[in-house]
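Hi V.,

You were right to ask for the full record rather than a summary. Here it is.
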Amino acid sequence: MSKWLWLSLLAVFLDQVSKFAVDSSMQLYQSIPLMPYFNLTYVRNTGAAFSFLSEAGGWQRWFFASLALIISVVLSVWLARLQKHETLLALALSLVLGGAVGNLIDRLAYGYVIDFLDVYYNSWHWPAFNIADSAITLGVALMLAESFGLGNLKKK
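Predicted structure:
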């Protein structure tokens, strides 16, 4: 497990540093165009993915924080029990773990998650996200790839 924790720690570090930079240098809802179809837009998400339950009245902070904590423990145990050859799954779990911890830190410290990556086309905007969300998404994609046999190819 310790072989892969560096990746989780890197994801948490990059996530927290980027959120600190956005929070300390931008106003809430400020948007900075970076390139076509991509802005930095500072928002706060009190809900889950896609702002699910963001208007629920406050209980969701502790629900999602508890859920992230439980998931982090489960992922840590799973990561510790992996076999040496399960490198793709270890990579995937480490990314998901790092992302979960990154967003957990925000929920515990602020009561919301800082989001700032804004992908759009014309007037349509994907919900803003952050480095932790990106790590989770990449980790889940790698888990799916691994479940379809990628990384388990044996030489014939």
